[in-house]
Amino acid sequence: MALEPEQFVKIINEPLKSKNPIVIAGFPGIGLVGNITCQHIIEELEMKYIGSIDSRYFPPLAVLFNGIITMPVRIYESAKKGIVIIISDIPIHPTASYDISKALIEWILSIKAKSIISIAGIATTTGERRVFGGATNAEMLEMIKDKTEIFQVGTISGISGSIMTECYLRNIHAVSLLGETPGPNPDPRAAVEVINVLNKIFDLSINKEKLMSQAEQIELELSKLADQVKTTEAPMLPKKEFPMYG
Asked: What is d(CA 174, CA 166) in angstroms, rounded to the nearest whole number?
């Protein structure tokens, strides 16, 4: 007999104080845009840790923060703003995305969420930091069309894509925000642009100064690393031809 996704995924949380909250989800991906965005919002809004998600699909590891064990996938709430954030420190394997997204959406329905915002990154070579947007219905698309670059044709991969597909199948109001980034390195600048969009949509007024200073620090460290690589690379030796014997 086939097992239901809920038997593979366990979600434990305190009772929420928010009624019909907005749920924002950020999982590891290109540029860590979802993680960086969600972590910054959690800190700026001083959100309360209210629960966690566990699964047999997750890798066998423990996450430490300031020396204390914590869960790798956590849930936070700002009752004042009516926002719930789901943030993950571990990547979700593609084969597990289907079951985890189904269990996640079941939980989101149980808390009577107003809408879902899935945040991820999108790699391009333009050098820009635009935010691409997509939605599960015309109403949500109307909400973001003047605040994002509408993602006309393409795919959203990984758990973010699974969440959006499940929302579409369940007729749930959901938006995907994809921060444009040039590569896989952590990209706070892309996260800043995503927060700009969230501020406009939900009137959040989230301060971004700390995130911008992190962006400058990361860029400085990457620049130093690139210089170190250049100075430590050995020059190519000229090829020598050796006579063959035998």
From this structure: 10
The whole-model pTM stands at 0.86
CA nearest neighbour of 208 among 191, 232, 186, 226: 191
CB 204, CB 81: distance < 8 Å: yes
Sign of the Cα torsion 141, 41, 160, 221 reads: positive
What pLDDT score does 6 carry?
53
Half-sphere exposure of 71 (CA within 13 A, CB side): 17
Number of domains in the chain: 1
106-130 pLDDT, tens digit each: 999 999 999 999 999 999 999 899 9
Tokens linked to 83? 């926002």
Lowest-confidence pick of 43-47, 138-142, 157-161, 237-241: 237-241
Angle, CA of 89, 91 and 96, to the nearest 5°: 130
Q: What CATH number has the domain bearing residue 84?
A: 3.40.50.10900
